[in-house]
Write a structure and sequence with these properties.
Elements (H helix, E strand, L loop, with lengths): L10 E4 L2 E4 L2 E12 L2 E12 L3 E5 L6 H8 L7 E6 L5 E4 L11 H6 L3 H16 L5 H12 L2 H14 L16 H15 L3 E5 L7 H12 L4 E5 L3 H7 L2 E6 L2 E6 L2 H36 L6 H13 L26 E12 L2 E12 L3 E5 L6 H9 L6 E6 L5 E4 L13 H8 L5 H10 L16 H14 L4 E5 L7 H12 L4 E5 L3 H7 L2 E6 L2 E5 L3 H8 L11
Parallel strand pairs: 5-9, 5-10, 7-8, 8-9, 14-18, 14-19, 16-17, 17-18
Antiparallel strand pairs: 1-2, 3-4, 3-6, 10-11, 12-13, 12-15, 19-20
Amino acid sequence: MPPLEQNCEMSCLFGNLVYTARAMLTIKKLTKAHAGRTLFFETELVVNWGERIALVGPNGAGKSTLFRMILGQDSPDEGQIAMDDYATVGYLAQEAGDPTDRTVLEIAMSVTPEMADAIRTLRECDKMGDNTSDAYAHAMDTFISHDGYQLEPKAKRILKGLAFKDEDFHRPAREMSGGWVMRAHMAQLLVAEPDLLMLDEPTNHLDLMSLLWFQRYLMNYPGAIFMISHDRDFMDSLVETVYDIENGELVRYTGNYTRFLELKEQRYELLLAAWRNQQREIAHIESFIERFRSVASKAAQVQSRVKQLEKLRRIEKPRQMRRVFKFIFPQPPRSMQRVLELEKVGQSYGEKRIYRNLDLLIERGDRIVLVGPNGAGKSTLLKILAGVLPIDEGRRVPGTTTRIGYFSQMRSENLTPNFTVLEEIMNANPELREEEARGVLGSFLFRRLDCEKRVEVLSGGEKSRLSLVKFLVNPPNLLLMDEPTTHLDLMSVEALSQALKNYEGTLVFISHDVHFIRALAEKTLHISHGKVTPYAGGYDYYLEKSGLMDNPDAMDL
């Protein structure tokens, strides 16, 4: 890519020298069509050095396509994408690809292919006791030139922040789940510290504790950040600029995501007022033309107004912002005060002891979030509460009127394959009117034609969302939810949040979406090393009382 033209918007004075800041990335007059639809039309974007930007827009608007074009993986139909010659770029995709035999630490330290080869050669030579060959000497030169002795401590520190344990460092990536491999690649980017960090849904594979660490780490990141995310709190904490994809245009807003929503609403109202004013003006001119078209003495005035209309740059009627569907969900039957109780429960996986002598009481109206490091037993506890995992010791005592709904990470088991999406929801609650069912489905990204699809042809994400809607239209009085916001966009998360705020039953859930947690949790259970510590307040209360608000390094990862 050609070097950028100098951007003279900002100057910095250091002693007697004045340096003019340059844009790192500039997009000019970009046009791109895909599958017969124009995603972008002559649009522009600028990323300055050190800037924090979020790219937002509805599903299918072209966010990932824009990222691919910036990375050179796709080409614009017209326009220019220019990157500063001196800028380095790091990209975190949503999926890590096929795992390799490289260890977690090797991935984290592989800031360049040359460094990866050098590390591998050094390890092989050490195993054979060979430290005199030319291959060893060349690899050591590369290792030292890349500051290798500082690289390993930095990589280990970042890996620990992302919840890897010491014994994980030398495990081959192929032995680990896709989520953990993604974390290793995330560590690789943070170790490398590129000038521009491009992140596509970076919080998808992080638990709450790792997310808190990652968020705080990025607050002090020295480079620019350009992200796609469905995590509102994450964006609010980090970004200072939002680019919104709207009708093929990249519209720039200054501020975090919450400020963007306010400004977008204001922009819509202003555009709507301008469109209405222009429509009145057009109607007035057309009325004059029609009225005096046949009057010879008015011919010059009529012709003048015809030319005025021809030259008029017409304002396109703005599309109304997508809003959360307002729907009063049916309420569950009232439960007893003691909804569910665990007495002296013990649970193990093989030789690993998860819980010992666990006592827990869930009472009517509780809204509890489970937090803690990955592998601490949060999902296990939810399964015990749901009764889907037999306990090794102790008693599980549900109330006599307790009706449990368990929304697991394996969501499709409660769906009927040959039903349509609409039939699935109507069958879940026969009292639901069709227009209400379609409205709720629309809030969770099921458009008109999607409602006629058979369940069996839905993607994993679509099945997850459909299972969620089934719970909402016929809720139990004890709702157990494991990561319910996965596969939801920001507006759908808000719709779910609003629905659960009005839910009169008892709620116990796991989530890494901090905005969602803040909206719903009234109690917190921290789980670590088989110990369950209750906090009589929501997320912020937990952070304050646990000391994490002021000292994130105190996290038990």
